[in-house]
Amino acid sequence: MFLEQGIKTENKFWKYLLGSFFIIIASFVGQIPFSVAVLYKNFTDNVAFPTDNDAVMKIFEPNLTLFLVMISFVFALAGVYFVVKHLHEQTFLSITTSRKKIDWRRVVFSFLLWAFFSVASFFILYQESPENFVWNFKLVPFLILVVLGSVLIPIQTSTEEYVFRGYLMQGFANLAKNRWFPLVMTSVIFGSMHIFNPEVAKMGYVIMIYYIGTGFFLGILTLMDEGIELSLGFHAANNLVGALLVTSDWTVFQTHSIFIDMSEPSAGLDVILPIVVVYPILLVIFAKKYKWTNWKEKLTGNIEVAESSNL
Q1: What is the β-pairing status of strands 133-135 and 246-247?
Q2: How many Å apart are CA 158 and CA 154, to the nearest integer?
Q3: Spatial separation of the C-alpha atoms in residues 57 and 50, rounded to whole Å
Q4: What is the pLDDT of residues 182-202, one digit of tens each?
Q5: The model's pTM
Q6: CA dist., res. 236 & res. 17, Å (int)
Q7: What pLDDT is attached to residue 264?
């Protein structure tokens, strides 16, 4: 079973605190190239030093910004691998899945399913309000975005899944010896990590319902399927399709996407609809395909261990 793979008497919770600190440091090290590039740009072009995150994200050409930002996730993912292997003495597979090897068919199915939902949803919105979208397609920058995005965005999303649905979910399971606590904690922390996104400033804190709700959805996928393959595919499709298809001046990334969304953002149905309608539909699809049963036990049950000495 997935959570049980991380529960060992010597795998005490303080190790997860130490490991998380190491991963954060690795991420900060990965941000050094971006910081150096900003300082160099400021020095050579004699431009004002950016004073907020929005200004920092717009100082370079979008494809270069994407590349520089994503470097930190490469370092963070390496940090996850290091602490799992050397601090916890586990295999990387053990925080990926309970199966004997990664089920790539699950990753691909989840990716394609959510990519289809995302593209279909966008074109429904486009048909209803075409005046809200501006054609932004430029062949060469877009092709560069496709290459960079196809490599780097899955690294970014996989890093987040390995940290939250893999590493920390097993860590909180070590602490609580049940399933509901890891689900709640990783979902709340995952959602809270987005609190400084420009979308929050534009729409208000109500959008945190979407971020935390998405964390719960991905956590449910992990617990019911006994692995993070489905969440890996979903998260990669969500971010990659978004980056390629449509951007706006109030999102985290401004990319050379096909369309620009010119509408004024509002926290309405686009926040609530995924949580109360779309995600439940997806859960039904996954449950039917993978024959999930015993929902209450898998999501809220206790974890039986021979000895619990984690403090």
Answers
A1: unpaired
A2: 6
A3: 9
A4: 999 999 999 999 888 878 877
A5: 0.94
A6: 27
A7: 77
